[in-house]
Amino acid sequence: MCRKLSTEALRGCLSVAYEFDFPYTATMLEEVRACRVCGSDSLTGFFDLGEQPFANALLKDPNHPDPRYPLALVFCNECSLVQLSHRAREEELFSEYVWVTGTSKKIHEFADIFCDRLVRRAGEPKDSYVLEIASNDGTLLKPFQKRGYSVLGIDPAENIAQMARESGVPTEALFWGKDTAQHIVQKRGLSKMLFARNVLPHVSDQRDFVEGLSTTLHPDGVLAVEVHYAGIILRELHYDSIYHEHHCYFSLKNLERLLNDFGMYAFDIEESPVSGGSIIVYAKKQQMQPSASLLALRASEEKNGVNTRSSWNKFAERASAHKTALLSLFQKLRSKGSVLGYGASARASTLLNFCGITRETLPSIADKNPLKQGLYTAGTHIPIIPIDQMLSQKPSSVFVLAWNFKDEIIEELREMGFRGTFLIPFPDPPHIL
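Given the sequence above, the corresponding structure tokens read:
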């Protein structure tokens, strides 16, 4: 089922249509005129990355031009939410998908840790079921299954949902929102353990999405929401996390505001090792005494200016300086030998397009995901190859584009015999290992 944008979500937005025959048809981007969290029309632009293709729109034919769309950030002067200036439809971005959770060793290791954390906070409710929104291939649900819990995954990509079902994780291919939530409640009842990892910024209508979470959450249940944290993006200059799939970039302040609007209240928070710096916010339908870590992060945001426009204006200036420094290091390595890439991630797409790096200077990018191998990167048209093929070309250096998994990548390549250097673009400043 594909859910259309609600009338409420479209209100206050000026529709700007872009139509192409490839790789999408009848694609429409809407210029955002109202904040995705609070609805304010007081939005100020501060960072323009130019027109870029959809980050995961990988190509079969490198000679076929791919469409580009505006990619820029605006700041809400009411609730401080950093968000994209234009909105792409979920149906265009996620009905088929190429990111597979199970390809990451780090996420596999984190799955058991996260299971412990959520069960501990929920009090091990055996009389309910565990529900994950945007469950991908089911990797995060499997530890709950091993403990004897009934589980259900919801994911919009039919190809990925089928992979989950084949591995034994019950999964429905649906876009999430209030309507889908009511459908699930009618079938399965309310969930006492509900989580949505790294998905809220991806949806086109954040309010409908969170209303769906509230609709499904049991009065005694616990919700866990993970987001790539704006405070870390700001501090470590993660501008490569800006792409059309990420509609907004949450601080604790505006995430709490959104949850509160639908009767859910944060009581605890933890860091996550995924996405190069994420937080997991735990919430319930009853207001509780906030944990020390939650109070500390609220204070930290105030101290460090995470929710101020001036901080984000400086972010844009720093990004331009970072681009210059990164290209200088890249050219230095190229002058000493061949450089190939690792990690054809969505992050890589933004970085490569923003910096103007194409197959002329980066001949190929290795990736362990078989769904990506044999394709070409969006906009820059760099071939994506298996890891062993990259190593057979004996590069002098590897440009680690999926830098948020750099420790895992470096360990893997060293074990496979690579003895060259690594170019690490983030966190700021770029550096060579």
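Residues 309-334 form the longest helix (26 residues). Try to locate this feature in the token string yourself.
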